[in-house]
């Protein structure tokens, strides 16, 4: 079988330090599983998922690696999955991890497995095992790397996920934490959040997806404002003008009204002129 490695522009040592400082993490000496889990968690808590470029500013998202670094790591912005996981992928490669990109179908409890693949994440091979990594989903996501070749529940930061084989070439990621809070049903105990594929793909494969997602009026991220960030015991999200904060034992929902810039700064640490 042919093996093809994508050529990725690595961060300089100075850029690696800047990235790790931005997410509040100490230097990484070795590419270990423990460091990988911490990188994912700290990115989720520090770099918000947001689509303000496509929804509010009505412009195509730029995936140029240097531009994304300047926008998110050096600026007070976040980005959507193609930006955030693109950054994370580049960081992991720069730190010495064996990483590759993967296509993802976002279900969030839907049973429509034919929905188009509109997300990207990362698969890391480490010590002979493969792990699914996602630092940029606009919704609940594992706060660490999920081992792929096991169906056991894996718990990170009091949230439990597991990976199961699905349709040919794809895997399901199930979640069983706080489902009843999220969907408003006491009997809701488990749901499929995403499908991901282990078929080889490369950064160039996502160019068409980025163009559609950020410019087509019928695309999800041109129709909805979606902002999300992890907190120590849950997450904060903004869908259009409705703010929601989910914690271990509480859910707060409130309208934003005319306070959008204040909410972006206070709840997501985003500074932007709209």
From TrEMBL:
Keywords: Transferase. It comes from the Bacteria. SUPFAM superfamilies: Cysteine proteinases. The lineage of its organism: Bacteria, Bacillati, Bacillota, Clostridia, Lachnospirales. Belongs to the arylamine N-acetyltransferase family. GO terms for molecular function: acetyltransferase activity. It holds the Pfam family Acetyltransf_2. This is N-hydroxyarylamine O-acetyltransferase. PANTHER family: ARYLAMINE N-ACETYLTRANSFERASE 4-RELATED, N-HYDROXYARYLAMINE O-ACETYLTRANSFERASE.
């Amino acid at each position: 079988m042919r093996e093809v490695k994508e050529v990725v522009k690595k961060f300089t040592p100075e850029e690696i330090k800047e990235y790790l400082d931005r997410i509040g993490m100490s230097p990484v000496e070795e590419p270990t599983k423990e460091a990988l889990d911490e990188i994912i968690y700290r990115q989720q808590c520090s770099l918000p998922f947001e689509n303000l470029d496509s929804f509010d500013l009505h412009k195509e998202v730029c995936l140029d690696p240097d531009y994304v670094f300047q926008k998110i790591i050096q600026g007070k912005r976040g980005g959507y999955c193609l930006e955030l996981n693109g950054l994370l992928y580049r960081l992991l490669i720069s730190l010495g991890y064996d990483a590759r990109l993967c296509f993802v179908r976002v279900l969030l409890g839907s049973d429509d497995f034919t929905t188009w693949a509109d997300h990207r994440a990362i698969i890391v091979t480490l010590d002979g095992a493969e792990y699914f990594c996602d630092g940029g989903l606009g919704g609940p996501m594992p706060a660490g790397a999920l081992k792929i070749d096991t169906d056991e529940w894996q718990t990170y930061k009091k949230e439990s996920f597991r990976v199961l084989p699905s349709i040919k070439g794809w895997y399901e990621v199930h979640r069983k934490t706080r489902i009843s809070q999220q969907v408003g049903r006491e009997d809701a105990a488990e749901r499929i959040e995403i499908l991901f594929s282990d078929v080889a793909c490369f950064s160039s494969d996502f160019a068409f997806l980025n163009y559609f997602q950020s410019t087509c009026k019928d695309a999800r991220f041109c129709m909805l404002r979606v902002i999300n960030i992890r907190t120590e015991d849950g997450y904060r999200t903004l869908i259009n003008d409705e703010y929601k904060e989910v914690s271990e034992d509480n859910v707060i929902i409130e309208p934003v009204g005319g306070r959008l810039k204040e909410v972006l700064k206070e709840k997501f640490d985003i500074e932007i002129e709209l």
